[in-house]
Amino acid sequence: MLGIISLQGLTRELSLYLESQVRVGLLGSGVGLSLVLGFGAAYACYYLSVIAKRPQLVAGGEALCRFLKQHCPAVTETYYPTVWCWEGRAQTLLRPFITVKPHVHYHNELIKTADGGQISLDWFSNDDDNTRYPDADTRPTILILPGLTGTSRESYILHMIKHSEALGYRCVVFNNRGVAGENLLTPRTYCAANTEDLETVIQHVNTLYPEAPLMAAGVSMGGMLLLNYLGKTGRQTPLQGAAVFSAGWEVFESATLLEKPLNWILFNYYLTTCLQASIMRHRSVLEKQFNIDYVMKAKSIREFDTRFTSVMFGYPTNDHYYTDASPCHRVKSIEIPVLCLNAVDDVFSPGHGEFLYV
């Protein structure tokens, strides 16, 4: 026993001695500082040569391209992502912890649909001290479409509204059926391909303010829905312009990227559980037509869509749904000015996906 204790003590003393020698050797000789400086220089070179890039501007015509360069100079400037957090997945994961939620006072409106359902709209009227557009009848209106499971309470939606407020605009957020706390009245939710609810909302808003310019902005799946709507309607839309952020242009490509092991762990499974949670909130309505237990066993968004979404909207297979939901097939039919913004390393939309059919 004494021998073991002595051996343990000797080992500990040797470990402390070696640690002190390494510390003294590195810092005392300047080797440690050299390593830090060398690593910093290498990181800076990599960041400036590989990460910091000018946006790739793709426009359907020279007129729009000139307009963007004149009024939005950022499209011609080098973009420098956050130096210590430039990777797309890291930014996506970190955002909820470092962003604040500005206060926005909404008033809610429930509108009826042709099938007996209801849609929840959250309005920000921007009536207080609006010197830019004091007349509510002609005040520009922005229709905002959140992402896959998002609502008007998401931080990115709130910030969009605050920026719009500064410009004097009125905003209305289109919450997909059943996600914003309202009851689901019929066994139908939403998808990226079916634009009937969006058409109902646009017609409703335009009827309320026929003299006000109407524009729209969509994020992620909301952007996909908006693009599909614009591709279907062409010039037959009250919208005068639109902006789309982080849309998945080719759904097969997006689904495949999200099913890679790390992306599945970080994003895919979580979003699947969010979709399933929404289904469970309305189980009493949905289980009349769908096998909810089977839907709840889905482990990915693709499995969820195969078992639920594609079935709900009458597609023969999920592949048919994904083809119909991909905006890349309709982008050439859009007839109004649209600005689309995608990150090359967007985990939900691979950098090559948006150019497959453009």
TrEMBL record:
Coiled coil residues, start to end: none
Recorded catalytic activity of this chain's protein: 1,2-ditetradecanoyl-sn-glycero-3-phosphocholine + H2O = 2-tetradecanoyl-sn-glycero-3-phosphocholine + tetradecanoate + H(+); 1-tetradecanoyl-2-(4Z,7Z,10Z,13Z,16Z,19Z-docosahexaenoyl)-sn-glycero-3-phosphocholine + H2O = 2-(4Z,7Z,10Z,13Z,16Z,19Z-docosahexaenoyl)-sn-glycero-3-phosphocholine + tetradecanoate + H(+); 1-tetradecanoyl-2-(9Z,12Z-octadecadienoyl)-sn-glycero-3-phosphocholine + H2O = 1-tetradecanoyl-sn-glycero-3-phosphocholine + (9Z,12Z)-octadecadienoate + H(+); 1-hexadecanoyl-2-(9-oxononanoyl)-sn-glycero-3-phosphocholine + H2O = 9-oxononanoate + 1-hexadecanoyl-sn-glycero-3-phosphocholine + H(+)
Subcellular location, record wording: Membrane
InterPro entries per UniProt: AB_hydrolase_1, AB_hydrolase_4_sf, AB_hydrolase_fold, ABHD4
Keyword Mitochondrion: no
E.C. numbers: 3.1.1.32, 3.1.1.4
Name of the protein: Phospholipase ABHD3
Function, as annotated: Phospholipase that may play a role in phospholipids remodeling. May selectively cleave myristate (C14)-containing phosphatidylcholines through its predominant phospholipase 1 activity, cleaving preferentially acyl groups in sn1 position. In parallel, may have a minor phospholipase 2 activity acting on acyl groups in position sn2. In addition to (C14)-containing phosphatidylcholines, may also act on other medium-chain-containing and oxidatively truncated phospholipids.
Swiss-Prot/TrEMBL keywords: Hydrolase, Lipid metabolism, Membrane, Phospholipid metabolism, Serine esterase, Signal-anchor, Transmembrane, Transmembrane helix
Stretches assigned to the AB hydrolase-1 domain: 140-243
GO biological process: medium-chain fatty acid biosynthetic process; medium-chain fatty acid catabolic process; phosphatidylcholine metabolic process
Keyword hit for Coiled coil: no
Membrane topology: Single-pass type II membrane protein
A molecular-function term among this protein's GO annotations: monoacylglycerol lipase activity
Sequence similarity: Belongs to the AB hydrolase superfamily. AB hydrolase 4 family.
GO cellular component, one term: membrane
Highest taxon of source: Eukaryota
